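Here is one chain, start to finish.
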Amino acid sequence: METDFTRRSTYFYDLPQELIAQTPVEPRTASRLLHLDRSTGAVSHHHFYDLWQFLRKGDLLVMNDSRVLPARLYGVREDTGSPIEFLLLKPTAEKVWEIICKPAKKAKPGKRFRFGEKLTAEVMDVTEDGGRLVRFACEGNLYAVLDEIGQMPLPPYITEKLQDKERYQTVYARELGSSAAPTAGLHFTPELLADLRSQGIDEAFVTLHVGLGTFRPVKDDDIRNHHMHIEHYTIPEETAEKIRQTKANGGRVIAVGTTSCRTLEGAAAEYGEIRACEGDTGIFIYPPYDFKVIDGLITNFHLPESTLIMLVSAFAGYDHTMNAYAEAVRERYRFFSFGDAMIIL
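Its structure:
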């Protein structure tokens, strides 16, 4: 029977709850690494510090340098003292943000909230999807205050408290704006990157600010009815030039993470080439798909029936992907954001 790639249920796999990683491993490079051969489907087991074995001189790693905003705030309503939780989604003007909050019924337009000594907020409006538009007030830079008092917006499947906020940032994160980490990059250390550079493996950066829509489940079994979330990206000229040079010299462009992949493939789909650009992408990649830029992918293990496992299936081949996931479950790999990694070449 022919596989129907447009059905959500096609991408289901059985995952024991205890394999969902709750905490990151130390050191970062000690995570496991599954190598999947795109052409044969062969699988082998390694650690992330073995990454150099699969790369060669002239390859280019493209990484997402977006930095996660500590966007979860806990505070109280000024008039009653009742607790409130804000989750910041995106800025719409100076110190004005679209948020979701709970309990939402406490956050009517005109109500004011306090978050510690340094930050207050007033609800301005209710958004179409039930969120809120709020105006913050603080001394100086809002981002600096958030960095001080905000909590990391960890995915809903992580229930343990994060001891060190920096462990949900990549070591090269610098452009503040994501609601979730580009987690494939969490395995890198400055030392590993320096070792790779010394072997002639270059790196380049794109920025894609990851939205909370990345965790939004596909609800319709016909995935063609799924509306992808829109995310903002930037490809600088230096990165575009490195990609052109790598291709011209016969090297491989390897995306670190699905966000880097979506940035590159989204830009190529829009412009027909990789060039310096900035824009929004809602690209939805599932089999069959003709990849225009990337030759390899480093990624974590994703949720069943998610748009991310659909993207991986498009790149590695559906059967190869599902077989690799079954093998990872058998071998007790750690899954999702703080879990282990795979490299597909």
